[in-house]
Design brief:
The complex is a heterodimer of chains A (289) and B (269). Chain A has 289 residues and is α/β, with parallel strands linked by helices. Chain A folds into two domains: 225 residues, P-loop containing nucleotide triphosphate hydrolases (Rossmann fold); 43 residues, no CATH class. Helix content of chain A is 38%, strand content 21%. Chain A is built from eleven helices and ten strands. In chain A, the strands form two sheets. Chain A has a six-stranded mixed beta sheet, with helices on both faces. In chain A, strands 2-1-4-5 form a four-stranded antiparallel beta sheet, with helices on one face. Chain B has one domain. The longest helix of chain B has 31 residues. Chain B is mainly alpha-helical and 269 residues long. Chain B starts with 15 loop residues before the first helix and ends with a helix. The radius of gyration of chain B is 24 Å and the shape is flat. A two-stranded antiparallel ribbon of chain B has the order 1-2. The chains are: A alpha/beta (289), B mainly alpha (269). At the A-B interface, helix 3 of A face helix 8 and helix 10 of B. Bound molecules: adenosine-5'-triphosphate and magnesium ion. The site of magnesium ion has 4 residues of chain A, from helix 1.
């Protein structure tokens, strides 16, 4: 059994009212430990609802959720303990900052876990470094930071809890391309350094393609597919009909392949595409000039 | 979830009650309240309840909703009922035990008061069921506007009410989100003593206030960008107009009021 497993998970908003909405429909999932998974789907497909089940914020209408082999809601007293295994970063997490200093805000989660002062201090400093916040920022008020810095401080607040699974809901929403790359970069770094399972929710295929190893595609409250990148991008047509797109570079290289140029690799990012083109040119004995 | 709280409780519909001019509806509600308080006996209350029930049925609002509106004030009804039951000592005693004395007057007053409160709540909630909050504030503005001559800020008050109503659902949603986010960071809001719980509210309240102020600032800016400068010389998209049905409704209501007054003369209590 993987670190996250669901059995016939269903969630209904507003049961018994005219606004009834099945947001998650009979989902069976099994996500392995150490994986970095992208969750994509168009707006309203149920991504946020699904991930809120993984740390017990929402109670399934029916079905079961297992974290690390433990069933959530089987024993209510253990809910908090299991919740600490799964760190959830909400969309626009900067709106949850509240402490006087960035340091205290990052320490909020670890403190709730009942850790010692020394351990809290170590974690705060380490995660601040990981998200690229300079030590002098730690003593500032979180409300003095820029938008991107706030976002990173808020992410650090969850990372400092050192969960076994880190889930981020649209961590790049509303940021400029540089801020976006920065966040995605630090997520990858965090994954490489800690080896924890990471779930990354996004609308953007481009973002997901260059960050993750496996992709979970949601459509109309259901899982359309869960597979590695090439498996998902092979279904370009179905994705388009769901309002999703395959990354531009991937499309370009698919066309090149169709046009008869031979190469083995699957292309998901522009940097990789550049290397590939240069390599292919070299192999053919052509130089760039 | 907190989102389940309905505020404004408006039930969209097309009945004649829905279509009455909101100003007239406010007036009718006032007359109805006067009716309830002039009624001095059960026959008067009966007439008033007939009036209310008829309006409810015409409006097409499920009677279930009427019961739902009573539920929150049940404690008040029970409390006043107990007070009336034990502290009215006039009339013939029904039960006497040590210092407890229950008289037939007490029982009668208890039932009478309870009936009056219930009728009051049902009638006024019919107003909010059939009138959208925005229309209602519009009507209030229009009714209060003559007071502008004595510098009463009718437009500003109505605008404040409209904005507040508009943002209640937004703030509730925001509270929900912030609560989830802090819970995910291990905030514990459900256990501990009172002081502990009050402290646990800080991580919710601070972000909520910050975002409320941010929204207020953005809204003020957006309004200014659209040249909002107060109520002076403003025209409206939806003009309130009275129709014949409004006058008919007023006449019917006045007939009921007259009936209640006449019934009072025939049956004192
Ligand atoms: N609190 C709520 N009450 C009622 N319905 C809700 C609530 N939250 C979400 N929904 C509905 O559930 C469905 C799934 O919502 P969800 O937020 O999970 O989508 P999403 O995939 O995260 O979308 P987005 O990409 O826009 O964040 C939507 O149709 C939405 O309208
Ligand atoms: Mg979402």
């Amino acid at each position: 059994m993987g670190i996250i497993k669901t059995e016939n998970l269903t969630y209904v908003y507003g049961e018994g009212t005219p606004f009834r909405k099945v947001a998650v429909d009979n989902i069976n999932l099994d996500i392995d430990e150490g994986e970095i998974v992208g969750i994509i789907g168009r707006t309203g497909s149920g991504k946020s609802t699904l991930i809120q089940h993984f740390n017990g914020l929402l109670k399934p209408t029916s079905g079961k959720v297992f974290i690390d082999g433990d069933e959530l809601f089987a024993d209510k007293s253990r809910l908090k303990e299991i919740r600490f295994k799964v760190g959830l970063v909400f969309q626009y997490p900067e709106y949850q900052l509240f402490e006087e200093t960035v340091y205290k805000d990052i320490a909020f989660g670890p403190k709730n876990m009942g850790l010692s002062e020394d351990e809290i201090d170590r974690r705060v400093r380490e995660t601040a470094r990981l998200v690229g916040l300079k030590p002098e920022y730690l003593e500032k008020s979180p409300f003095e930071l820029s938008g991107g810095q706030k976002r990173r401080a808020a992410i650090a607040g969850v990372m400092a809890m050192e969960p076994k699974v880190l889930i981020l809901d649209e961590p790049t929403a509303g940021l400029d391309p540089r801020g976006r790359d920065r966040i995605l970069g630090l997520i990858k770094e965090y994954h490489a350094e800690k080896g924890t399972t990471v779930l990354l929710v996004s609308h953007s295929m481009e973002d997901v393609a260059k960050t993750v190893s496996k992709i979970l595609v949601m459509n109309n409250s259901k899982v359309f597919m869960y597979s590695d990148r090439s498996g998902v991008f092979a279904k370009a047509e179905e994705l388009t009909s769901m309002g999703l797109t395959v990354p531009q570079v991937t499309r370009v290289f698919d066309r090149l392949r169709a046009a008869g140029i031979e190469f083995e690799d699957e292309v998901f990012s522009v940097e990789y595409a550049k290397d590939l083109v240069l390599r292919l040119l070299r192999e053919r004995g052509q130089s760039l000039d | 979830m907190i989102k389940d709280i309905t505020i404004g409780q408006f039930f969209p519909g097309k009945s004649i009650i829905h279509r009455l001019d909101p100003r007239i509806k406010l007036l009718l509600t006032v007359i109805y309240i006067v009716m309830l308080f002039t009624a001095s006996g059960f026959t008067g209350l009966l007439a008033a309840s007939l009036y209310m029930l008829a309006a409810f049925i015409i409006s097409g609002i499920p009677i279930k909703m009427m019961l739902k509106s009573i539920k929150p004030i049940l404690p008040i009804i029970i409390f006043t009922g107990i007070l009336n039951l034990f502290f009215i000592s006039s009339g013939d005693p029904l039960v006497e035990w040590h210092f407890i004395k229950i008289t037939d007057d007490g029982v009668r007053t208890m039932i009478f008061m309870a009936a009056r409160i219930i009728l009051l709540i049902c009638g006024t909630s019919l107003l909010t069921y059939t009138t959208s909050p925005i229309t209602l504030t519009d009507a209030i503005e229009r009714i209060l506007s003559p007071l502008k001559v004595i510098k009463f800020p009718a437009h500003e008050i109505a605008m404040m009410m409209t904005i507040a109503l508009r943002f209640i659902p937004t703030l509730i949603e925001e509270t929900d989100k912030i609560m989830s986010a802090q819970k995910a960071r291990g905030a514990d809001m459900e256990s501990g003593n009172l002081i502990h719980r009050a402290k646990a509210l800080i991580p919710i309240l601070i972000p909520l206030f910050v975002s409320a102020f941010r929204r207020a600032e953005e809204l003020a800016l957006a309004m200014e960008c659209r040249c909002y400068h107060g109520g002076e010389g403003r025209t409206r998209l939806k003009q309130l107009k009275t129709a014949p049905r409004d006058y008919v409704a007023v006449v019917i209501t006045l007939i009921f009021l007259a009936a209640v007054i006449v019934l009072n003369m025939f049956s004192p209590i």
